[in-house]
Amino acid sequence: MGRVFDFAKRRIAGYIVFWILVLVFLGLFYGNDPPAQAGALFILVIAFIGSLLYTRRLKRKQRARREGRDAALRMQQAQPVQPPQGTPPPPPRQPIEQTPGR
Hints:
2 helices
């Protein structure tokens, strides 16, 4: 819950800051020209919608990555890891009989 809530708060704060900046921008540069304000506002709204769509896309990719990582972790935990077995000892050698006198 914490991760989602924190992201939502940051996103809402970002939206508020964005629209305050839009209004300041329109007031400073297009003070008494309503058609120019409408055109600039239209362009900024299109840019804002594009940023929303891009944010959704990034969240989907992040969710897919997180789910893949969690699934891999679950699979790893489900299958107990067998410790690597050492090399098997060599087979016992039979003693070599030596004949005396040679």
